[in-house]
UniProtKB/TrEMBL annotation:
Protein name: YheE family protein
Alphabetized Pfam families for the sequence: DUF5342
Length: 67
């Protein structure tokens, strides 16, 4: 489970070109960029369970941004 998930638009006043995000997973902090097409670019180390973490990020972004 992701904890303390936060996201912000890359630029003030708009959703494009994407969002920056951060969260804790298994007591480690991760950061990245979420693009409008769903692509994730990690700006920190990649989680060991990357595919599962990506699914959780997609669900959270869909719920909060695309609702």
């Amino acid at each position: 489970m992701l904890q303390h998930f936060r996201f912000t638009p890359m630029f003030a006043g708009g959703n494009l070109p994407g969002w920056t995000f951060s969260f804790f997973y298994q007591q480690e902090r991760f950061t990245g960029e979420y693009m409008p097409d769903g692509t994730i670019k990690w700006t920190s180390d990649v989680p060991s369970d990357e595919e599962n973490v990506k699914k959780m990020i997609h669900e959270l972004m869909t719920f909060h941004v695309y609702e």
